[in-house]
Amino acid sequence: MQPEKRRELEERRRQLQQRREAESYMETYVHPYLEVLGYLNQQAVPYKLGQLMYLNEDWYGHVTKMIQATPYNKYSFPVLSPSEMKELQGALDQLFDCYPSTNPLRYVPSLRKFADYSVGSPRDDRKGLEETASALKLSDQRVYLYYLRYSPILELSLMDILKHDNEDLFNWHHGDAVIFPTDRSWLMAFTLEEEWYGGRRVV
User: Fold this and answer.
1) I need a labelling partner for 192 at 20 to 30 A (CA). Which of 7, 8, 155, 198 fits?
2) Long-range contacts formed by 125-128: CB under 8 A, 24+ apart
3) What are the C-alpha distances in Å from 129 to residues 80, 116, 132, 135?
């Protein structure tokens, strides 16, 4: 086989492998998240979709095509920006450095627990998120909402998210989630065991 033909075939195999990996990434870390976006849209909760977290640079081209096609094109996924991704990923890494987990199997920060829905709370009596925000004396502000199981990150109003502490957004299926401001001065965390933790960073 001619060297040029061999290189061409190797490049095709490489592209095919990257496309399969990108499809797997989207199927695992983005597609299930559409349930969250669907709920927020249904409830008319305004939000801004941030970058996709921890996305391999080799997949950018394939992922860009996928978020422009069904079913992702119904949502406002941003144009992929490597610099913005790195900035947000750095913010997340710093967040987990500030509030490390005490449990190796799920995210449990060393903060006060305000609610435990696993012991049996009526569906219409879930007030853990609101009580956590009240205890931290939080006022309305722009915050990030990030599910550790998924890739997308959301920016929205704290007051808007406080109205939606329910099983459609926070449950064992979606898993661990964190709500935090840009400066990471405080954190509210929902765990896989359906508990709410919260606290401020110790300076």
Assistant:
1) 155
2) 126/165, 126/166, 126/167, 127/165, 128/165, 128/195, 128/196
3) 31, 11, 5, 10
For residue range 6-57, list pLDDT tens digits in order: 777 777 787 889 899 999 999 999 999 999 999 999 999 999 999 999 999 8
pTM of the model: 0.90
Evaluate if residue 84 carries a pLDDT over 80.
Answer: yes
Mark 168-202 as b/e (b = at least 16 C-beta within 10 Å): ebbeeebbbbbbbeeebebbbbbbbebbbbbbeee
Digit-coded pLDDT (tens) for 107-150: 999 999 998 887 765 555 688 999 999 999 999 999 999 999 99
Domain range enclosing 189 = 3-200
The DSSP result for 1-62, as a single string, is --HHHHHHHHHHHHHHHHHHHHHHHHHHHTGGGHHHHHHHHHTT--EEEEEETT--GGGHHH
* 33: Cα separation from own chain's centroid: 8
Domain count, the chain: 1
